[in-house]
Amino acid sequence: MTSSAPQHSPVDVTNIEQASAWDGASGDEWAVHADRHDAACRYYDPHLMDAAQIAASDHVLDIGCGTGMSTRYAARAAIAGTATGIDLSARMLDEARRRSDTAGLANTSFVQGDAQVHPFHPAAADVIDRK
Question: Does pTM surpass 0.90?
Answer without folding.
Answer: no
